[in-house]
Write a structure and sequence with these properties.
It contains seven helices and no strands. The protein is mainly α. Helix 1 runs antiparallel to helix 2.
Length: 298
């Protein structure tokens, strides 16, 4: 615009020399002002470029080293906003934006590599833990050393908790499988203790039954012995009574025959009463023996 005005002033023939010189002087002053303004703008843009360079360089450094992907992307976005929001020369702006694009691509590439490595590590850890859990769950269902097996389960459980590289799905599935082992062991331990309790009860009952049978046999033998002795005593009394009757039959008539006959009758009567009492007692004893023989252990 100033150039056009300068050309027009120079080509206009109707202007006096003083007028032309004054106009050209004003235009030259405009050129000088424009030059100073342009140099100021250029200087400001260079200063802005220096400031933006620190933002971009810091963002690039974080993109190369950090594994905090979210925070790194925030740093890159902030640096990108600094580039777009600053007054910069075109070549500087394009250079900065190109570097930011490369930094974003680097972060994406590094994150993809880290994700693939993490997934590989997760798969390796899950496979190793799956095999170990399978073994300890089998052990929980077969081992008779409950304390050692429980300790082994706890060790594997702690190892699973301490393993950082596992997918949530694998971790949940592995914990479910391990918990099955704890449940199996708890059921077997409960069944074992219940079996031991029942065994102790059965053994105690058998001991009591054996002692009861021993006492019963002793009582039976005692009763049988007492019955035998009482039967023998009755048999002797019966023999004695028969003997008294025979003595009565042999008494010859005489002065004392009636008296002797009476004495023998009294003796025979006494023996008969004793026999009756013993037979009654024998009946009670035989009933007691039958009841004792029929008695069952409870």
């Amino acid at each position: 615009m100033l150039r056009d005005a300068q050309t027009e002033v120079r080509s206009t023939q109707s202007l006096k020399l003083e007028q032309r010189q004054a106009l050209l002087a004003n235009l030259q002053e405009g050129f000088e002002n424009e030059k100073q303004k342009r140099e100021g703008t250029d200087r400001l843009r260079r200063e802005n470029a220096v400031a933006v360079e620190s933002w971009v360089a810091a963002a690039e450094a974080q993109a190369r080293s950090s594994t905090d992907w979210r925070a790194t992307r925030e740093v890159l976005k902030n640096a990108q906003q600094q580039v777009r929001g600053s007054d910069l020369r075109r070549e500087d702006r394009e250079g900065f934006l190109n570097r930011m694009r490369v930094a974003f691509e680097l972060v994406n590439s590094r994150q993809d590599t880290a994700r693939h490595e993490y997934e590989r590590e997760c798969a390796v850890n899950a496979g190793a833990l799956r095999a170990e859990i399978s073994n300890v769950v089998y052990e929980a269902g077969t081992s008779s050393n409950f304390s050692w097996t429980f300790s082994h389960l706890r060790t594997v459980q702690q190892r699973l908790k301490d393993t950082g590289s596992l997918t949530r799905q694998d971790r949940d599935a592995l914990f479910d499988a391990l918990n099955k082992g704890f449940e199996i062991l708890a059921d077997r331990r409960r069944d074992y203790h219940e079996g031991q309790r029942r065994l102790r009860v059965a053994q105690e009952r058998e001991r009591r039954r054996s002692e009861w049978e021993i006492r019963k046999r002793e009582r039976v033998r005692g009763l049988e012995g007492a019955i035998y002795r009482l039967q023998e005593s009755i048999r002797r009394d019966l023999d004695h009574k028969e003997d008294l009757y025979r003595q009565k039959d042999r008494i010859r008539p005489g002065r004392r025959s009636a008296e002797i006959h009476a004495q023998l009758n009294r003796k025979a009567e006494d023996v008969g009463n004793r026999i009756w009492s013993k037979q009654e007692k024998l009946g009670d004893m035989e009933k007691s023996l039958r009841d004792l023989t029929a008695e069952q252990f409870r």
